[in-house]
Amino acid sequence: MAYIPSRIKKHDTNPGKGFLNLTSLMDMFTIILVFLLKSYSTEGGLIHPSENLTLPKSTVETIPETALDVIVSKETVMVNDEVVETVVNVAGQEGLIVPRLRDRLKVYADRAKEAEQKYGIKFSGRVNVQADKDLEYGILVKVLATCGMCEYTNLRLAVYQLERPTGRSAETASTL
Questions:
Q1: Predicted structure pTM score
Q2: How far is CA 86 from CA 16, 53, 54, 105, 123, in A?
Q3: Rounded to an integer, what distance in angstroms lies between the CA atom of residue 50 and that of residue 25?
Q4: What is the 3-state secondary structure (H, E, C) of 44-103?
Q5: pLDDT tens profile 129-152
Q6: Quick check: helix, strand or coil at residue 28?
Q7: Is the pLDDT of residue 66 over 50?
Q8: Torsion sign, CA atoms 13, 14, 18, 20
Q9: Distance CA 108, CA 71 (A)
Q10: Where are the alpha helices (DSSP H) in the chain?
């Protein structure tokens, strides 16, 4: 028996017209939503070590908190992924204060204080320092001293957490 098209299909003048299948789109959005909820439901703030940076390992179990990120890699000093100074220049400077880093941190401190006045968000002076494990101690001291001078006195050093005997992941980031 031959197929008899319906009346609407018979008079369709544009048979090549496509329709959007919403079922597969809803499935895709549901999967993306579950993935995002799972990604952002972890405890504490997420720390993503940048390239050219190997964090030291420690047994500390403090959960990282959201704060201003100061990253000292083998080549550069960055504030929130913005290159501020090279490590070579920091090593060659006399004194404990790194001028370009100080200027950038003061901008962030001023913005935070302005937000405190406008919106009541308290300026905590908290900063997460991610420093390479092979970094010279003198360079790290200069960066920390500069942070302290710019009212960022609540310093936290990011480290990789060593694996515990219970089998917890070895590559989670923590702060000291």
A1: 0.67
A2: 60, 14, 17, 16, 28
A3: 34
A4: CCCCCCCCCCCCCEECCCCCCCCCEEEEECCCEEEECCEEEEEHHHHHHCCCCCCHHHHH
A5: 999 999 999 999 999 999 999 999
A6: helix
A7: yes
A8: negative
A9: 15
A10: 7-10, 22-40, 87-92, 99-119, 137-149
Give 169's pLDDT tier (boundaries 50, 70, 90). very low
Q: Which residue has the tokens 């940048």?
A: 50
- Torsion, Cα 32 34 35 39, to 10 degrees, reads 140
Alpha-carbon distance 105 to 68, whole Å? 9
Q: Computed from CA positions of residues 62, 66, 67, 73, in that sequence, does the dihedral angle turn out positive or negative?
A: positive
Residue 29 carries which side chain, given as an amino acid letter? F
Q: Which two tokens stand for residue 35?
A: 């993935």
Gap between the Cα atoms of 129 and 158, Å rounded: 6
Write down the residue that tokens 């950038």 correspond to: 104
Q: Rounded CA gap, 90 and 73, in Å?
A: 12
